[in-house]
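Teaching assistant's notes for section 4

Start the section by putting this record on the projector. Ask students to predict, before seeing the second block, whether MUC4 protein will look compact or extended. Collect guesses on the board.
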Amino acid sequence: WDDADFSRGVGTTFYQEFLTLNSAKPPFIRDVEAKIRRHMKTSYSAVWTLKVTWEKAPARTAQTDTRRTSTYQAVLTTDGFRSYLLILYQDGGMKWDYTQLAATNVLIGYS
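Reveal the predicted structure now:
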């Protein structure tokens, strides 16, 4: 993605690691597995997952206007052979103003 700027004390980053080899899987992991099975049309059973959440992250340069912040997650997961990355956005999507980015050749969407 682009630079998030937390220098003005707005926004927070959280992470949580899930080791699920030989253990009961929490609902979050079962949901991740279901998403991968549905979209990739393959069987999948996670043994390790990392969830990183950026909450109310302001775009570079930092702004204190919380209407322009975005909350999103990156979920990295593997079954030991295959790895996947899920990018999840809060309802309402990204609120950063991409017209203010320094780069003009920005790709938004799926690739």
